[in-house]
Design a protein that fits this description.
Order of helices and strands: EEHH
Helix content: 10-25%
Shape: extended
Oligomer: single chain
Largest sheet: 2 strands, antiparallel
Number of helices: 2
Strand content: under 5%
Radius of gyration: 19 Å
Number of strands: 2
Distance between the termini: 55 Å
């Protein structure tokens, strides 16, 4: 689909089950595909809203940090004299 000259791909992925983060079911493959996404929409049965927490937990254990600010990371250049890995 295209929106404002941006190409958008929408995927309906298989469900993330409890244990997916450690490889249960197709967990590793599904999480690898999710890792490339710019947006994740979690949908659950309205009568089983507790499933959303299971999905959030599995995503967190797989390294996804939903609704959190990225950590403040600074990259600073060091001089060659300061480098500890430079060959001698």
């Amino acid at each position: 689909m295209e929106y404002n000259s941006a190409r958008i791909q929408v995927l309906d992925m298989p469900g993330i089950i409890e244990g997916a983060s450690v490889g249960k079911g197709l967990g590793k493959q599904i999480l690898a595909a999710v890792r490339n996404a710019d947006l994740v929409v979690i949908m659950v049965d309205a009568h089983k809203v507790e499933q959303a927490e299971i999905i959030r937990k599995e995503l967190y254990q797989a390294g996804f940090r939903l609704n959190q600010k990225p950590p403040a990371v600074q990259v600073m250049r060091k001089s060659k004299e300061e480098s500890s890995w430079a060959p001698q």
